[in-house]
Amino acid sequence: MIDMKKLISLSILTMLIVLASIVAVRSESGSGPKPSIVLIHGAWADGSGWSGVISRLQDQGYTVYAPPNPLRGLASDSAYIADFLQSITGPIILVGHSYGGAVITNAATGNPNVKALVYVDAFVPDEGESLIQLLSMPPPIGQSASCLGGDPSKVFNFVNYPGAAAGDFDVYIKQSVFPSCFANDQPVVKAAVLASAQRPAVLSILPAVSGVPAWKSIPSWYLLGTIDLVIPPYLQLFMAQRAHAQIVDVRTAHPSMISHPEAVTLLIEQAAQTVTGNSNTNSELTLSPTSL
After folding, report:
1. Cβ atoms within 10 Å of 188's Cβ, excluding its own
2. How many domains does the chain have?
């Protein structure tokens, strides 16, 4: 005679074993450790510009860092961020905005923990190239060069600082220029606040020559702001395509992490998921290199 209690117990045990096996298989096929996200701001900005991105990434369970970019020179800024990266264990997704793109291009070189580079309206220099060279690229017919070009005395304020090399200065964008140039998709009041709080960069970052680029050995993603007046779209596209980046176009001005934090966050997550083997096929962003 069959003992029903034993049979039921055996059936339950079998189901538990099967469920445990399914969970184990899913775990083994998962993405491994979640990468840390490191966000590097550019010139005339600071880490607070990433606030909307940070909160969204933290909600998704990521550990996020937004260290200050010293803005004292490309070589020293890159060395500082490279040292900061050495303090983090495990995989890293390194993100740079504007001048921060040049910094991550140099800082990540030779660091095996950096699994992806994400450029946000950013410079992506090649070896031996400077920012002034990139900004001097002639625009295509019908498009405009950077709003930071022209007569420097009408765009910038130049301030002496202790220990400056001859001819070097702290550079601020004039507050009268900032809203229409740097923050042209922000409400006027918000743009005025950003202009007041901007951190200066030294003038010498512009002619500084970039080193061996990390994007030649690390996969990259690029958010291209189609109404960016600081780094014009044609220049962004040139740099992103040269780096073989996966590109997403977003109708945003230069500080896209402020005006479109959800799009920036989604691109970072997509990079993180791709390099950890857990690509999100339901992404709301369309990654597609385009002609402008």
Report:
1. 10
2. 1
Q: Considering the entire predicted model, what is its pTM? A: 0.86
pLDDT of residue 31: 52
Check if the beta carbon of residue 252 is closer than 8 Å to that of residue 260.
Answer: yes
Handedness of CA 241, 242, 244, 248 (dihedral sign): negative
Residue 71 belongs to what domain range? Answer: 36-137+208-275
Taking the CA atoms of residue 122, residue 258, residue 62 and residue 104 in that order, the dihedral angle to the nearest 10 degrees is 20
Asked whether residue 69 carries a pLDDT value surpassing 80, the answer given is: yes
Q: Any catalytic annotation for residue 55?
A: no
Q: What is the 3-state secondary structure (H, E, C) of 242-280?
A: HCCCEEEEECCCCCHHHHCHHHHHHHHHHHHHHHCCCCC
Domain CATH for 66: 3.40.50.1820
Nearest to 233 by CA among 253, 206, 214: 253
pLDDT digits 0-9 by tens, 97-135:
999 999 999 999 999 999 999 999 999 999 999 999 999
Average pLDDT score over residue span 211-222: 98
Q: What is the pLDDT of residue 22?
A: 37
36, 98, 130, 220: the catalytic one is 98
Query: CA-to-CA distance for 85 and 49, rounded, in angstroms?
Result: 20
Residue 66 one-letter amino acid: A
